[in-house]
Amino acid sequence: MRILITGGAGFIGSHITKLLLNEGHEVMVFDNSAGNLERLENVIASVAKQSSSELEIAASPASWRTPRNDNSGMTLLHGDLKDSEALEKALGGVDAVIHMASLIEVSESVKYPLKFAENNIMGSINLLEAMKEKGVKRIIFSSSATVYGEPKTLPLTEGMPLDSANPYAASKIAVEQFLSAYHKNHGFDVTILRYFNPYGPGEEHEPETHAIPNFIKNGLDKKPVPLYWKGEQTRDFIYIEDLAKAHTVVLDQSGFNIFNVGTEQGVRIIDVINKLSDILGYTLEVEDLGDRPGDVRSNYASSQKLKESTGWSAQTDLNEGLRKTVEWFKSRENF
Ligand SMILES: NC(=O)c1ccc[n+]([C@@H]2O[C@H](COP(=O)([O-])OP(=O)(O)OC[C@H]3O[C@@H](n4cnc5c(N)ncnc54)[C@H](O)[C@@H]3O)[C@@H](O)[C@H]2O)c1
């Protein structure tokens, strides 16, 4: 398939791009970060070298070029969701879109809700309009477990009520609703994937607010790791390669589908710190920051619906995933 992946040069998108190429798809990466595109170019070039495959980088990350129609594997497109013309060019001949481009930092969203609404909601509608214009009607959307707010019961299943606790979550709910409208009004095939807590090699957000990369970075620097709620909250940590695979198994889904993507296990944050101490070979020092209002206490997924539809289930055990992630942070080489 020929697939356009918006935000495909980010942390999760890079892994999905790599997997799509390995599975023989043609991938057009559309991203507004020149730095991330350059990083992705290096990742894919090293994969191509290692496997002597035919991958080719078709465009320089800092500039727009019309996609080459030569089965080269990957094309990098430096563009923004608000640029309809760029989107329409990128959509030529595309079979499906994986839509990941988004601002993601929750506390930033509380400070700058308009910026989040413009980028995440208006940007997504702009993409949907460009897709309609070009007759591309298959989309997979990166949503998040944050759409559920504070869970009343666990595990979380897809039919549970949504409750946005911040503008980031509100932007995901809004886009889900627009996707529903485009499915009903224009016959789009829509798959919404609600990710739980992704982690793995290559995760370097700025600012980084996610627990695992912060624990590992501080641990390697022998600095105390920040800890809230004494580490008693539970999260469902999904290894990045398992999450990437969830995208390729839904490529042929039709209709309107929503799937949780998680391991179905809630792990206490303090247990993650203890596992990391074992892997690093010394006890991580903790900085007790007390309670943090607004945090969800516990969550974990039921991913039975995705399993029943596609056979997918998470394969990577937390110890193995953490070990691979620590190794990556030590070398910071391509994943
Ligand atoms: N990382 C997580 O824990 C997590 C959890 C749940 C859902 N998600 C969702 O997964 C997706 C990817 O997350 P990530 O962690 O890889 O984030 P990321 O920040 O690493 O990647 C997002 C990419 O989107 C690009 N982008 C943002 N706005 C854009 C725009 N207007 N036009 C073009 N490109 C744009 C960014 O430059 C970046 O390269 C996001 O939609 C996010 O909301 C992430």
Summarize the structure.
Residues 3-262 form the NAD-dependent epimerase/dehydratase domain. The chain contains eleven helices and 14 strands.
Can you offer a commentary on this structure?
Helix 1 links the parallel strand 1 and strand 2. An 8-stranded parallel β-sheet has the order 3-4-2-1-5-6-7-12, with helices on both faces. The chain has a two-stranded parallel sheet with strand order 8-11. A two-stranded parallel sheet has the order 9-14. The model is unreliable at 50-72 (pLDDT under 50). It has helices at 11-22, 34-51, 84-90, 106-111, 113-134, 167-186, 211-220, 240-249, 269-280, 304-310, 318-331; strands at residues 2-6, 26-31, 56-57, 73-78, 96-99, 138-144, 189-195, 197-199, 225-227, 234-235, 237-239, 256-261, 267-268, 286-288. Helix 3 (84-90) packs across helix 5 (113-134) and helix 5 packs parallel to helix 6 (167-186). The protein has 11 helices and 14 strands. By secondary structure, it is of the alpha/beta class. It is globular and about 55 Å long. Bound molecules: nicotinamide-adenine-dinucleotide. Belongs to the NAD(P)-dependent epimerase/dehydratase family. InterPro entries: Epimerase_deHydtase, NAD(P)-bd_dom_sf. Residues 3-262 form the NAD-dependent epimerase/dehydratase domain. It comes from Candidatus Daviesbacteria bacterium GW2011_GWA1_36_8. This is NAD-dependent epimerase/dehydratase.
